[in-house]
Amino acid sequence: MNRREFLSNVAVKAAGGAIAGLAAGCSFSQTPAAEEMAEAAQSDQSLPELSWQCATSWPLGLDTIFGGAQVFAERVGVLSGGKFKIEPRAAGELVPGLEVLNAVQEGAVQCGHTASYYYIGKSPVTAFGTALPFGLTDRQQNAWLYEAGGLEMMQDVYANRFGVIQFPAGNTGVQMGGWFNKEITSLADLQGLKMRIPGLGGQVMAKLGVTVQVLPGGEIFQALQTGAIDAAEWVGPYDDEKLGFHKAASFYYYPGWWEPGPTLEVQINLNEWNNLPELYKEIVKSAAYEANIIMMARYDAKNPTALAKLQSESDIQLLPFPDDVMAASEEASFALYDEFAASDADFKSILDEWTVFRSAIQSWHGYAETAMLNYGARNT
Ligand code: CA
């Protein structure tokens, strides 16, 4: 075993030990494998002391999503025996929340935690790093990124176009379709509706006749309450309840077809990455894996309670989008992808691979996975 393989094994063992430790009710830092790795780092005199800043797109109040950056940073610190420190900073502290990629690209900050689809203005290809409407769920997204070449393709694009390397580091799971002040009975009801929905979902909604608005999280409640907008999407029960949308609109729709499993990611300036010792690179990869798993687990643990609270405290109606809305939205989404593919070669080459993967995984998940989920949902 060469040094690289040894380091990789230590990192994988640490990540595995951490997960086993969680299952046994331990915190991450108490696992023997993590301690072994930290001791190895501490005793290696060749390893430098580093102190990085991490710009994020998140307010501190969104503890699950900002928590992804915290888990990542904490694990890098623990696994390096305290030698490699990363400090996550809330949106606006270092740079505005939607400027993280730019800051990392320019080297103004060493790393960031963000959603790549905030940067579709730079290239629509960035959407694949987070989510495309009618794209992949959390499980499917991880399979595509980690095991079907998706991350490798995306890393090539980021290296060439932005001088950045990225790793998945969080997921919200399928989001909700958002809050509406009237019932949506068919596609016709979307005509002229004023909705807060950013990104590609907004571009698809616009094709369906929706008047799209993009507002930051802190301004949505008032806009919905005053009738300045008729509908708004955010994330899901846990985050939505905090922002109080149920006090301003009573129809809560699902699913958020524009965000079936959005991945959040750690972005690192490529020069900074290339200068890291091999052990630190392995630690960063392991910490990002952990953040990716833990954020999804936290949402899955917190959303059921939050939804029950929303239902018990207010008179909300939980409704699925009508079939014709779903079908027209999917058709409009793929028409949009064809437009992007015609003008962006990177988008086209990734779309071709992604479309094949999506068909295969959706077909497979249509059997055992869907059957168990449907059976469970019917019997609760
Ligand atoms: Ca959303």
Give an overview of the whole structure.
With 380 residues, this protein is of the alpha/beta class. It has a domain at 3-173 and 260-301: Bacterial extracellular solute-binding protein, family 7 (D-Maltodextrin-Binding Protein, domain 2). It has 15 helices and eleven strands. The chain has helices at 3-23, 32-43, 63-79, 100-106, 127-130, 138-147, 150-162, 199-207, 217-226, 237-243, 270-274, 278-313, 323-343, 345-365, 368-378; strands at 50-56, 84-89, 111-114, 164-171, 178-180, 194-196, 211-213, 231-232, 251-254, 263-269, 317-320. Strands 7-6-8-5-9-11 form a six-stranded mixed beta sheet, with helices on one face. It has a five-stranded mixed beta sheet with strand order 2-1-3-10-4, with helices on both faces. Residues 1-8 and 10-27 have low confidence and may be disordered. Calcium ion (CA) binds next to loops.
